[in-house]
Amino acid sequence: MKPIVDSAFVSICPSTQRREALLHLAAVHEPSLQSTLHTALRSATQAAWEGLWIYQQRGRISGALWVQPLAHATAQLWLPCQDDPVSQALLSAAHDWVTTQGITLCHVVLPPSHYAWEATLLAHNMVRLAKLHYLSITLAATEAVPSTDSPIRLAPFSELSTAAQTALIDSISQGSLDCPSLRESLSSEALLAGFYDQAPTAPNHWYSVNLGDERVGVLLLAPRSAHCWELLLMGVTAQWRSKGIGRNVLTAAFNLAINQGANEMILTVDARNTPAWRLYQQAGFIGYAEQRLLAWKNA
């Protein structure tokens, strides 16, 4: 006989049971998510625990999930260990809570081992945001091209005012095939803030891309180690796409990383962004991982 699942047993976790509850999160047991969860836990404030939910009956926790608050009225959902009736009761409570808290976007990251969760999450009003592919390239095999051979000029992003930075992000987002559902849900300010959160050294290694006197794109890089750099964002304004500018920007990114001693570059691309996919594959990038993004989106 199956145990009866009652939403009355779902509640916000008391501080005295927090450690036990966290062990019921799926990411604790998923290697590809452990590092990100560890970072989230280290940075969590007291207010962040208001989104830690448990299912408890007769003093025993049988499931937990965490809605981790992020900047600009966004959040990340950390799933329970198992997709079962208990987890579905937790998801229902979390969805209601996200709505009442005024969170505009609450996303969840699904590695391949968690793809089976997708049907349950869609049934609980989530929508698909993107399928992400993680790519890498060995820069030692890439010949640096003299910057004099390129028509573009890079200028430090820090030279732009905050308003100009935001405007540039907005400009390259127009009509972009890179995670359009995500970009539609977030303001340019929120998108830019997200990139700052991902790059501790920012705005070092960030640039506006210029062609003559016109600002036509952006290049955001982040050193991840002494020998590995990440291409966080490379974008060109709509009127300059399909004109070879992206290839020039990518070459500039290689040169910058190589000149700083890097021998590897990594990036993330939306599977539906065919032009970017083609550019990266032609440059020699190879896929090494993938994930899916889903989210609750509120007006």
Automatic annotation (TrEMBL):
Q: Which Pfam families match?
A: Acetyltransf_1
Q: Does the keyword Cytoplasm feature in the UniProt annotation?
A: no
Q: Sorted alphabetically, which InterPro entries does this protein's record hold?
A: Acyl_CoA_acyltransferase, GNAT_dom, YpeA/RimI_acetyltransf
Residue ranges constituting the N-acetyltransferase domain according to the UniProt record: 152-299
- PROSITE patterns, alphabetized: GNAT
| UniProt keywords, alphabetically | Acyltransferase, Transferase
Protein name per UniProt: GNAT family N-acetyltransferase
Please give the organism. Answer: Halomonas citrativorans
Q: Recall the taxonomic lineage recorded for the source organism.
A: Bacteria, Pseudomonadati, Pseudomonadota, Gammaproteobacteria, Oceanospirillales
